[in-house]
Automatic annotation (TrEMBL):
<dbReference type="InterPro" id="IPR036220">
    <property type="entry name" value="UDP-Glc/GDP-Man_DH_C_sf"/>
</dbReference>
<dbReference type="Pfam" id="PF03720">
    <property type="entry name" value="UDPG_MGDP_dh_C"/>
</dbReference>
<dbReference type="InterPro" id="IPR014026">
    <property type="entry name" value="UDP-Glc/GDP-Man_DH_dimer"/>
</dbReference>
<dbReference type="InterPro" id="IPR028357">
    <property type="entry name" value="UDPglc_DH_bac"/>
</dbReference>
<dbReference type="Pfam" id="PF03721">
    <property type="entry name" value="UDPG_MGDP_dh_N"/>
</dbReference>
<comment type="similarity">
    <text>Belongs to the UDP-glucose/GDP-mannose dehydrogenase family.</text>
</comment>
<dbReference type="InterPro" id="IPR014027">
    <property type="entry name" value="UDP-Glc/GDP-Man_DH_C"/>
</dbReference>
<keyword id="KW-0520">NAD</keyword>
<dbReference type="Pfam" id="PF00984">
    <property type="entry name" value="UDPG_MGDP_dh"/>
</dbReference>
<keyword id="KW-0560">Oxidoreductase</keyword>
<dbReference type="InterPro" id="IPR008927">
    <property type="entry name" value="6-PGluconate_DH-like_C_sf"/>
</dbReference>
<dbReference type="InterPro" id="IPR001732">
    <property type="entry name" value="UDP-Glc/GDP-Man_DH_N"/>
</dbReference>
<feature type="region of interest" description="Disordered">
    <location>
        <begin position="432"/>
        <end position="461"/>
    </location>
</feature>
<dbReference type="InterPro" id="IPR017476">
    <property type="entry name" value="UDP-Glc/GDP-Man"/>
</dbReference>
<comment type="pathway">
    <text>Nucleotide-sugar biosynthesis; UDP-alpha-D-glucuronate biosynthesis; UDP-alpha-D-glucuronate from UDP-alpha-D-glucose: step 1/1.</text>
</comment>
<protein>
    <recommendedName>
        <fullName>UDP-glucose 6-dehydrogenase</fullName>
        <ecNumber>1.1.1.22</ecNumber>
    </recommendedName>
</protein>
<feature type="domain" description="UDP-glucose/GDP-mannose dehydrogenase C-terminal">
    <location>
        <begin position="315"/>
        <end position="416"/>
    </location>
</feature>
Amino acid sequence: MHIAMIGAGYVGLTTATCFAEMGHDVACHDTDSERISQLEAGELPIYEPRLEEAMQRMVASGKLRFSRSGANCVGGADIAFLAVGTPATPDGRIDLSQVEAAARLVSRWLKPGAVVVIKSTVVAGTCRRVREIMAEERKSLDFSVAANPEFLREGSAMEDFLCPDRIVIGCDDRRSALLLSEVYRPLTERGTPKVLTSTTNAELIKYAANAFLALKIGFINEVADLCAETGADVGPVAEGIGLDRRIGPSFLRPGPGYGGSCFPKDTCAFAATGRDHGARQFLIETLIERNEKRKAALARRIIAQGELRKGSVVAVLGLAFKANTDDIREAAALRIIPILQKAGLRVKAHDPKAATNARQWLRDVEWTDTAYEAAHGADAVVILTEWEEYKNLDLGRLACTMSRRVVFDYRNVLNPRAVAAHGLTYLSLGRPPVSPTRKTTRGRVSALTGSDQRVAAPARD
Ligand code: UDX
Protein backbone atom coordinates (compact mmCIF):
# COMPACT_ATOMS: atom_id res chain seq x y z
CA MET A 1 0.00 0.00 0.00
CA HIS A 2 1.28 3.50 -0.84
CA ILE A 3 0.71 5.82 2.09
CA ALA A 4 1.13 9.59 2.33
CA MET A 5 1.61 11.07 5.79
CA ILE A 6 0.90 14.78 6.14
CA GLY A 7 2.62 16.06 9.26
CA ALA A 8 6.03 14.99 10.56
CA GLY A 9 5.34 15.58 14.23
CA TYR A 10 5.31 13.01 17.00
CA VAL A 11 2.19 11.18 15.75
CA GLY A 12 3.03 11.48 12.03
CA LEU A 13 6.59 10.22 12.44
CA THR A 14 5.66 7.34 14.71
CA THR A 15 2.80 6.29 12.43
CA ALA A 16 4.84 6.67 9.23
CA THR A 17 7.75 4.66 10.64
CA CYS A 18 5.49 1.91 11.98
CA PHE A 19 3.55 1.65 8.72
CA ALA A 20 6.88 1.26 6.93
CA GLU A 21 7.84 -1.46 9.43
CA MET A 22 4.54 -3.17 8.59
CA GLY A 23 5.63 -3.30 4.95
CA HIS A 24 3.89 -0.27 3.43
CA ASP A 25 5.59 2.37 1.25
CA VAL A 26 5.37 5.64 3.10
CA ALA A 27 6.09 9.23 2.06
CA CYS A 28 5.98 11.86 4.78
CA HIS A 29 5.46 15.57 4.12
CA ASP A 30 5.67 18.59 6.40
CA THR A 31 5.35 22.29 5.62
CA ASP A 32 8.40 22.90 7.83
CA SER A 33 11.20 22.28 5.34
CA GLU A 34 13.89 22.60 8.02
CA ARG A 35 12.29 19.67 9.77
CA ILE A 36 12.36 17.68 6.55
CA SER A 37 16.09 18.46 6.15
CA GLN A 38 16.69 17.27 9.70
CA LEU A 39 14.76 14.07 9.04
CA GLU A 40 16.61 13.49 5.78
CA ALA A 41 19.83 13.74 7.76
CA GLY A 42 18.49 10.91 9.94
CA GLU A 43 17.79 13.06 12.99
CA LEU A 44 14.58 12.82 14.94
CA PRO A 45 13.37 16.27 16.07
CA ILE A 46 11.73 14.81 19.20
CA TYR A 47 12.84 12.42 21.91
CA GLU A 48 11.05 9.10 21.61
CA PRO A 49 12.68 5.80 22.58
CA ARG A 50 13.47 3.47 19.63
CA LEU A 51 11.94 5.76 17.03
CA GLU A 52 15.10 7.32 15.61
CA GLU A 53 16.80 3.97 14.94
CA ALA A 54 13.60 2.53 13.43
CA MET A 55 13.16 5.60 11.23
CA GLN A 56 16.76 5.40 9.98
CA ARG A 57 16.30 1.68 9.28
CA MET A 58 13.12 2.28 7.29
CA VAL A 59 14.68 5.11 5.27
CA ALA A 60 17.67 2.89 4.48
CA SER A 61 15.34 0.09 3.36
CA GLY A 62 13.54 2.48 0.99
CA LYS A 63 10.17 1.99 2.72
CA LEU A 64 10.10 5.50 4.19
CA ARG A 65 10.98 8.81 2.60
CA PHE A 66 10.49 12.48 3.39
CA SER A 67 9.26 15.06 0.95
CA ARG A 68 9.05 18.84 0.82
CA SER A 69 6.54 18.64 -2.00
CA GLY A 70 2.87 17.89 -1.36
CA ALA A 71 2.46 16.70 -4.94
CA ASN A 72 5.34 14.30 -4.66
CA CYS A 73 4.11 12.92 -1.35
CA VAL A 74 0.38 12.62 -2.11
CA GLY A 75 0.41 12.02 -5.88
CA GLY A 76 0.80 8.24 -5.97
CA ALA A 77 -0.81 7.45 -2.62
CA ASP A 78 -3.74 5.07 -2.12
CA ILE A 79 -4.35 6.61 1.24
CA ALA A 80 -3.34 9.94 2.81
CA PHE A 81 -3.20 10.35 6.58
CA LEU A 82 -3.52 13.80 8.15
CA ALA A 83 -1.42 13.91 11.31
CA VAL A 84 -1.20 17.64 11.90
CA GLY A 85 -1.60 19.62 15.09
CA THR A 86 -4.95 20.53 16.62
CA PRO A 87 -3.91 23.13 19.22
CA ALA A 88 -6.30 24.45 21.84
CA THR A 89 -7.95 27.82 21.44
CA PRO A 90 -8.28 30.07 24.50
CA ASP A 91 -11.89 28.90 25.05
CA GLY A 92 -10.84 25.22 25.21
CA ARG A 93 -12.03 24.31 21.73
CA ILE A 94 -9.57 23.04 19.15
CA ASP A 95 -8.15 24.96 16.25
CA LEU A 96 -8.80 22.94 13.11
CA SER A 97 -6.95 25.27 10.75
CA GLN A 98 -4.01 22.88 10.22
CA VAL A 99 -6.40 20.00 9.47
CA GLU A 100 -8.29 22.17 7.02
CA ALA A 101 -5.08 23.33 5.32
CA ALA A 102 -3.88 19.72 5.07
CA ALA A 103 -7.23 18.71 3.56
CA ARG A 104 -6.88 21.44 0.94
CA LEU A 105 -3.35 20.32 0.16
CA VAL A 106 -4.22 16.65 -0.34
CA SER A 107 -7.32 17.47 -2.39
CA ARG A 108 -5.03 19.08 -4.96
CA TRP A 109 -2.91 15.99 -5.57
CA LEU A 110 -4.99 13.02 -4.48
CA LYS A 111 -5.63 10.38 -7.12
CA PRO A 112 -9.27 9.41 -7.79
CA GLY A 113 -10.57 6.68 -5.50
CA ALA A 114 -8.07 7.43 -2.74
CA VAL A 115 -8.95 7.76 0.93
CA VAL A 116 -8.08 10.61 3.29
CA VAL A 117 -7.78 9.56 6.93
CA ILE A 118 -7.77 11.92 9.89
CA LYS A 119 -5.21 10.74 12.44
CA SER A 120 -5.17 14.01 14.38
CA THR A 121 -7.40 14.20 17.43
CA VAL A 122 -10.50 16.01 16.24
CA VAL A 123 -13.99 16.76 17.52
CA ALA A 124 -17.07 14.94 16.29
CA GLY A 125 -18.09 16.15 12.85
CA THR A 126 -14.59 16.99 11.58
CA CYS A 127 -14.58 14.24 8.93
CA ARG A 128 -17.79 15.71 7.56
CA ARG A 129 -16.20 19.16 7.49
CA VAL A 130 -13.05 17.87 5.74
CA ARG A 131 -15.21 16.13 3.14
CA GLU A 132 -16.96 19.44 2.41
CA ILE A 133 -13.68 21.35 2.13
CA MET A 134 -12.19 18.82 -0.25
CA ALA A 135 -15.32 18.68 -2.39
CA GLU A 136 -15.24 22.48 -2.69
CA GLU A 137 -11.55 22.41 -3.64
CA ARG A 138 -11.85 19.73 -6.31
CA LYS A 139 -15.41 19.19 -7.38
CA SER A 140 -14.81 16.26 -9.75
CA LEU A 141 -12.69 14.20 -7.36
CA ASP A 142 -14.01 10.86 -6.15
CA PHE A 143 -12.61 10.24 -2.64
CA SER A 144 -13.52 9.08 0.88
CA VAL A 145 -12.76 10.54 4.30
CA ALA A 146 -12.21 8.34 7.35
CA ALA A 147 -11.15 8.71 10.99
CA ASN A 148 -8.47 6.60 12.60
CA PRO A 149 -7.52 8.02 16.01
CA GLU A 150 -4.20 7.21 17.65
CA PHE A 151 -3.68 6.06 21.21
CA LEU A 152 0.07 6.60 21.44
CA ARG A 153 1.69 7.48 24.72
CA GLU A 154 4.84 9.53 24.58
CA GLY A 155 7.74 7.38 25.65
CA SER A 156 6.17 4.15 24.40
CA ALA A 157 4.71 5.29 21.09
CA MET A 158 6.21 2.50 18.97
CA GLU A 159 5.04 -0.28 21.27
CA ASP A 160 1.62 1.33 21.51
CA PHE A 161 1.40 1.48 17.73
CA LEU A 162 2.65 -2.00 16.96
CA CYS A 163 0.96 -3.78 19.90
CA PRO A 164 -2.22 -1.76 20.43
CA ASP A 165 -5.18 -2.75 22.59
CA ARG A 166 -7.43 -2.03 19.62
CA ILE A 167 -7.56 -0.26 16.29
CA VAL A 168 -10.42 2.16 15.79
CA ILE A 169 -11.46 2.70 12.20
CA GLY A 170 -14.21 5.22 11.50
CA CYS A 171 -15.68 4.97 8.00
CA ASP A 172 -18.89 6.02 6.36
CA ASP A 173 -18.40 3.96 3.21
CA ARG A 174 -17.21 0.51 2.13
CA ARG A 175 -14.18 1.69 0.18
CA SER A 176 -12.48 3.35 3.13
CA ALA A 177 -13.41 0.46 5.44
CA LEU A 178 -11.76 -2.04 3.10
CA LEU A 179 -8.67 0.07 2.49
CA LEU A 180 -8.04 0.87 6.15
CA SER A 181 -8.66 -2.75 7.14
CA GLU A 182 -6.01 -3.72 4.61
CA VAL A 183 -3.53 -1.17 6.00
CA TYR A 184 -3.86 -2.64 9.48
CA ARG A 185 -4.07 -6.28 8.40
CA PRO A 186 -0.54 -7.13 9.73
CA LEU A 187 -1.77 -6.16 13.22
CA THR A 188 -5.32 -7.55 13.08
CA GLU A 189 -3.99 -10.86 11.75
CA ARG A 190 -2.04 -11.13 14.99
CA GLY A 191 -5.27 -10.80 16.94
CA THR A 192 -5.51 -7.05 17.62
CA PRO A 193 -9.21 -6.20 17.96
CA LYS A 194 -10.62 -3.81 15.38
CA VAL A 195 -13.54 -1.48 16.03
CA LEU A 196 -15.02 -0.68 12.65
CA THR A 197 -17.55 2.07 13.10
CA SER A 198 -18.75 5.44 11.78
CA THR A 199 -16.48 8.49 11.52
CA THR A 200 -18.40 10.35 14.24
CA ASN A 201 -18.16 7.38 16.62
CA ALA A 202 -14.42 7.10 16.00
CA GLU A 203 -13.93 10.81 16.64
CA LEU A 204 -15.82 10.54 19.90
CA ILE A 205 -14.06 7.33 21.02
CA LYS A 206 -10.72 9.13 21.11
CA TYR A 207 -11.96 11.95 23.34
CA ALA A 208 -14.05 9.72 25.57
CA ALA A 209 -11.11 7.32 26.06
CA ASN A 210 -8.71 10.08 27.07
CA ALA A 211 -11.32 11.74 29.27
CA PHE A 212 -11.95 8.45 31.05
CA LEU A 213 -8.24 7.82 31.63
CA ALA A 214 -7.86 11.35 32.96
CA LEU A 215 -10.80 10.69 35.29
CA LYS A 216 -9.05 7.61 36.67
CA ILE A 217 -6.01 9.75 37.48
CA GLY A 218 -8.11 12.51 39.04
CA PHE A 219 -9.94 9.88 41.07
CA ILE A 220 -6.83 8.19 42.46
CA ASN A 221 -5.31 11.59 43.28
CA GLU A 222 -8.31 12.38 45.47
CA VAL A 223 -8.26 8.87 46.96
CA ALA A 224 -4.59 9.45 47.81
CA ASP A 225 -5.51 12.62 49.69
CA LEU A 226 -8.18 10.68 51.57
CA CYS A 227 -5.67 7.93 52.37
CA ALA A 228 -3.37 10.56 53.83
CA GLU A 229 -6.12 11.83 56.11
CA THR A 230 -7.33 8.40 57.23
CA GLY A 231 -4.01 6.65 57.72
CA ALA A 232 -4.46 4.35 54.71
CA ASP A 233 -1.86 3.62 52.03
CA VAL A 234 -2.84 4.44 48.45
CA GLY A 235 -0.52 1.71 47.06
CA PRO A 236 -2.49 -1.30 48.30
CA VAL A 237 -5.75 0.62 47.92
CA ALA A 238 -5.04 1.20 44.20
CA GLU A 239 -3.96 -2.43 43.83
CA GLY A 240 -7.16 -3.65 45.47
CA ILE A 241 -9.26 -1.43 43.23
CA GLY A 242 -7.36 -2.25 40.05
CA LEU A 243 -7.56 -6.03 40.40
CA ASP A 244 -11.26 -5.74 39.71
CA ARG A 245 -11.24 -6.49 35.99
CA ARG A 246 -14.05 -4.01 35.46
CA ILE A 247 -11.70 -1.26 36.66
CA GLY A 248 -8.21 -2.42 35.68
CA PRO A 249 -4.88 -1.57 37.31
CA SER A 250 -3.52 1.11 34.98
CA PHE A 251 -3.76 4.87 35.44
CA LEU A 252 -4.18 4.53 39.18
CA ARG A 253 -0.84 6.06 40.16
CA PRO A 254 -1.25 9.25 42.17
CA GLY A 255 0.82 12.21 41.03
CA PRO A 256 0.94 15.99 40.85
CA GLY A 257 -1.92 16.11 38.32
CA TYR A 258 -1.92 14.93 34.73
CA GLY A 259 -0.18 16.99 32.05
CA GLY A 260 1.16 16.55 28.54
CA SER A 261 0.01 17.54 25.13
CA CYS A 262 -3.13 15.39 25.17
CA PHE A 263 -5.08 15.02 28.40
CA PRO A 264 -5.36 18.71 29.31
CA LYS A 265 -6.25 19.70 25.75
CA ASP A 266 -8.50 16.73 25.04
CA THR A 267 -10.49 17.02 28.26
CA CYS A 268 -11.09 20.73 27.51
CA ALA A 269 -12.17 19.98 23.94
CA PHE A 270 -14.43 17.17 25.17
CA ALA A 271 -16.06 19.51 27.69
CA ALA A 272 -16.45 22.20 25.03
CA THR A 273 -18.08 19.70 22.66
CA GLY A 274 -20.50 18.79 25.43
CA ARG A 275 -21.38 22.45 25.99
CA ASP A 276 -21.75 23.09 22.25
CA HIS A 277 -24.16 20.20 21.87
CA GLY A 278 -26.17 20.82 25.01
CA ALA A 279 -24.85 17.64 26.68
CA ARG A 280 -22.54 19.03 29.34
CA GLN A 281 -19.80 16.77 30.60
CA PHE A 282 -19.99 17.81 34.24
CA LEU A 283 -17.60 15.14 35.50
CA ILE A 284 -14.94 16.26 33.05
CA GLU A 285 -15.53 19.95 33.74
CA THR A 286 -14.97 19.30 37.44
CA LEU A 287 -11.92 17.14 36.70
CA ILE A 288 -10.29 19.89 34.63
CA GLU A 289 -10.72 22.36 37.48
CA ARG A 290 -9.52 19.92 40.16
CA ASN A 291 -6.46 18.91 38.15
CA GLU A 292 -5.35 22.52 37.71
CA LYS A 293 -5.96 23.34 41.36
CA ARG A 294 -4.04 20.26 42.46
CA LYS A 295 -0.79 21.58 41.03
CA ALA A 296 -1.13 24.88 42.87
CA ALA A 297 -2.24 23.13 46.07
CA LEU A 298 0.84 20.89 46.02
CA ALA A 299 3.08 23.92 45.62
CA ARG A 300 1.54 25.49 48.71
CA ARG A 301 1.81 22.15 50.52
CA ILE A 302 5.55 22.08 49.85
CA ILE A 303 5.97 25.52 51.37
CA ALA A 304 3.81 24.80 54.42
CA GLN A 305 4.92 21.27 55.19
CA GLY A 306 8.56 21.91 54.36
CA GLU A 307 8.47 24.90 56.71
CA LEU A 308 10.15 26.83 53.93
CA ARG A 309 10.81 30.53 54.15
CA LYS A 310 12.04 33.30 51.88
CA GLY A 311 15.48 32.30 50.65
CA SER A 312 14.99 28.54 51.31
CA VAL A 313 16.35 26.39 48.52
CA VAL A 314 14.20 23.80 46.78
CA ALA A 315 15.59 21.18 44.40
CA VAL A 316 13.00 20.14 41.84
CA LEU A 317 13.74 16.76 40.25
CA GLY A 318 11.74 16.20 37.09
CA LEU A 319 10.39 18.79 34.69
CA ALA A 320 8.90 16.55 32.00
CA PHE A 321 5.15 15.91 32.31
CA LYS A 322 6.04 12.23 32.77
CA ALA A 323 9.10 10.00 32.45
CA ASN A 324 10.77 8.99 29.17
CA THR A 325 9.97 12.17 27.31
CA ASP A 326 11.49 15.63 26.93
CA ASP A 327 8.01 17.13 26.67
CA ILE A 328 7.18 19.74 29.28
CA ARG A 329 3.76 20.78 27.99
CA GLU A 330 1.34 21.25 30.91
CA ALA A 331 3.93 19.66 33.19
CA ALA A 332 3.31 20.06 36.93
CA ALA A 333 6.78 21.65 37.30
CA LEU A 334 5.81 24.61 35.11
CA ARG A 335 2.97 25.45 37.47
CA ILE A 336 4.64 24.55 40.76
CA ILE A 337 8.04 26.23 40.31
CA PRO A 338 6.71 29.78 39.71
CA ILE A 339 4.54 29.50 42.84
CA LEU A 340 7.58 28.48 44.89
CA GLN A 341 9.55 31.37 43.41
CA LYS A 342 6.75 33.81 44.11
CA ALA A 343 6.94 32.77 47.76
CA GLY A 344 10.61 33.82 47.74
CA LEU A 345 12.16 30.36 47.46
CA ARG A 346 15.26 29.69 45.37
CA VAL A 347 14.72 26.86 42.89
CA LYS A 348 17.36 24.51 41.54
CA ALA A 349 16.17 22.01 38.95
CA HIS A 350 17.24 18.87 37.15
CA ASP A 351 15.72 16.67 34.47
CA PRO A 352 17.59 14.06 32.42
CA LYS A 353 15.89 15.03 29.14
CA ALA A 354 13.52 17.97 29.50
CA ALA A 355 15.73 20.72 30.96
CA THR A 356 16.43 22.35 27.58
CA ASN A 357 12.73 22.66 26.82
CA ALA A 358 11.92 23.82 30.34
CA ARG A 359 14.50 26.61 30.19
CA GLN A 360 12.34 28.41 27.65
CA TRP A 361 9.46 28.64 30.11
CA LEU A 362 11.04 29.01 33.52
CA ARG A 363 13.01 32.01 34.74
CA ASP A 364 15.58 32.38 37.52
CA VAL A 365 16.04 28.67 37.99
CA GLU A 366 19.48 27.27 38.74
CA TRP A 367 19.89 24.38 36.29
CA THR A 368 22.06 21.43 37.26
CA ASP A 369 23.50 18.45 35.43
CA THR A 370 22.71 15.92 38.14
CA ALA A 371 20.06 15.38 40.78
CA TYR A 372 22.76 15.55 43.48
CA GLU A 373 23.97 18.96 42.30
CA ALA A 374 20.38 20.16 42.53
CA ALA A 375 20.05 18.76 46.03
CA HIS A 376 23.35 20.30 47.17
CA GLY A 377 22.55 22.78 49.93
CA ALA A 378 18.79 22.38 49.39
CA ASP A 379 16.25 22.62 52.17
CA ALA A 380 13.85 20.33 50.33
CA VAL A 381 13.89 17.98 47.36
CA VAL A 382 10.69 17.68 45.32
CA ILE A 383 10.29 14.81 42.85
CA LEU A 384 7.78 15.66 40.13
CA THR A 385 8.62 13.15 37.37
CA GLU A 386 8.99 9.40 37.81
CA TRP A 387 12.34 9.04 35.99
CA GLU A 388 14.09 5.73 36.56
CA GLU A 389 17.20 7.53 37.83
CA TYR A 390 15.18 9.13 40.63
CA LYS A 391 13.85 5.73 41.66
CA ASN A 392 17.47 4.65 42.06
CA LEU A 393 18.81 7.73 43.83
CA ASP A 394 21.70 7.13 46.21
CA LEU A 395 19.82 8.29 49.29
CA GLY A 396 22.92 8.45 51.46
CA ARG A 397 24.56 10.81 48.99
CA LEU A 398 21.37 12.84 48.73
CA ALA A 399 21.06 13.17 52.50
CA CYS A 400 24.67 14.23 52.90
CA THR A 401 24.49 16.95 50.32
CA MET A 402 21.23 18.56 51.47
CA SER A 403 21.06 21.39 53.96
CA ARG A 404 17.81 20.28 55.58
CA ARG A 405 16.50 16.83 54.83
CA VAL A 406 12.96 16.92 53.53
CA VAL A 407 11.92 14.95 50.47
CA PHE A 408 8.57 15.49 48.76
CA ASP A 409 8.01 12.51 46.52
CA TYR A 410 5.01 13.48 44.43
CA ARG A 411 5.32 10.38 42.27
CA ASN A 412 5.69 7.87 45.10
CA VAL A 413 8.81 6.45 43.46
CA LEU A 414 10.95 6.01 46.57
CA ASN A 415 10.71 3.40 49.29
CA PRO A 416 9.56 5.31 52.40
CA ARG A 417 11.55 3.18 54.84
CA ALA A 418 14.73 3.45 52.79
CA VAL A 419 14.39 7.22 52.69
CA ALA A 420 13.72 7.44 56.42
CA ALA A 421 16.69 5.17 57.13
CA HIS A 422 18.92 7.85 55.67
CA GLY A 423 17.64 10.43 58.10
CA LEU A 424 15.37 12.08 55.59
CA THR A 425 11.87 13.27 56.31
CA TYR A 426 9.69 11.77 53.65
CA LEU A 427 6.42 13.22 52.39
CA SER A 428 4.75 11.32 49.61
CA LEU A 429 1.20 11.08 48.33
CA GLY A 430 -1.31 9.08 50.35
CA ARG A 431 1.11 6.86 52.21
CA PRO A 432 1.52 6.39 55.98
CA PRO A 433 4.08 8.40 57.94
CA VAL A 434 7.63 7.16 58.17
CA SER A 435 9.79 9.29 60.44
CA PRO A 436 13.52 9.55 59.93
CA THR A 437 14.99 6.52 61.62
CA ARG A 438 18.58 7.75 61.58
CA LYS A 439 19.99 11.18 62.22
CA THR A 440 23.06 12.04 60.27
CA THR A 441 25.72 14.43 61.38
CA ARG A 442 25.41 16.98 58.58
CA GLY A 443 22.59 19.47 58.66
CA ARG A 444 19.43 19.50 60.69
CA VAL A 445 16.81 16.79 60.36
CA SER A 446 13.47 18.48 60.07
CA ALA A 447 11.04 18.19 62.92
CA LEU A 448 8.42 17.05 60.45
CA THR A 449 6.96 13.67 61.14
CA GLY A 450 7.51 12.21 57.72
CA SER A 451 4.19 12.12 55.94
CA ASP A 452 1.65 14.34 54.39
CA GLN A 453 -0.96 13.07 56.76
CA ARG A 454 0.80 14.04 59.94
CA VAL A 455 1.22 17.60 58.86
CA ALA A 456 -1.86 19.71 59.09
CA ALA A 457 -2.82 22.53 56.82
CA PRO A 458 -3.48 20.89 53.52
CA ALA A 459 -3.19 23.85 51.25
CA ARG A 460 -6.22 25.85 50.28
CA ASP A 461 -7.52 24.82 46.92
C1 UDX B 1 -2.01 10.11 26.44
C2 UDX B 1 -2.84 8.83 26.20
O1 UDX B 1 -2.43 7.82 27.12
C3 UDX B 1 -2.69 8.37 24.78
O2 UDX B 1 -3.53 7.24 24.55
C4 UDX B 1 -3.12 9.52 23.89
O3 UDX B 1 -3.17 9.20 22.58
C5 UDX B 1 -2.21 10.72 24.13
O4 UDX B 1 -2.37 11.10 25.49
P1 UDX B 1 0.50 10.75 26.97
O5 UDX B 1 0.01 12.15 27.05
O6 UDX B 1 1.73 10.47 26.19
O7 UDX B 1 -0.63 9.81 26.35
O8 UDX B 1 0.78 10.27 28.45
P2 UDX B 1 0.14 9.26 29.52
O9 UDX B 1 1.09 8.19 29.79
O10 UDX B 1 -1.23 8.88 29.16
O11 UDX B 1 0.11 10.23 30.80
C6 UDX B 1 -0.61 11.45 30.79
C7 UDX B 1 -0.46 12.17 32.12
O12 UDX B 1 -1.09 11.45 33.17
C8 UDX B 1 0.98 12.35 32.56
O13 UDX B 1 1.13 13.63 33.16
C9 UDX B 1 1.19 11.26 33.59
O14 UDX B 1 2.20 11.54 34.51
C10 UDX B 1 -0.18 11.23 34.24
N1 UDX B 1 -0.48 9.95 34.88
C11 UDX B 1 -0.65 8.83 34.13
C12 UDX B 1 -0.67 9.89 36.25
O15 UDX B 1 -0.54 10.90 36.96
N2 UDX B 1 -1.01 8.70 36.81
C13 UDX B 1 -1.17 7.55 36.09
O16 UDX B 1 -1.50 6.51 36.69
C14 UDX B 1 -0.98 7.62 34.70
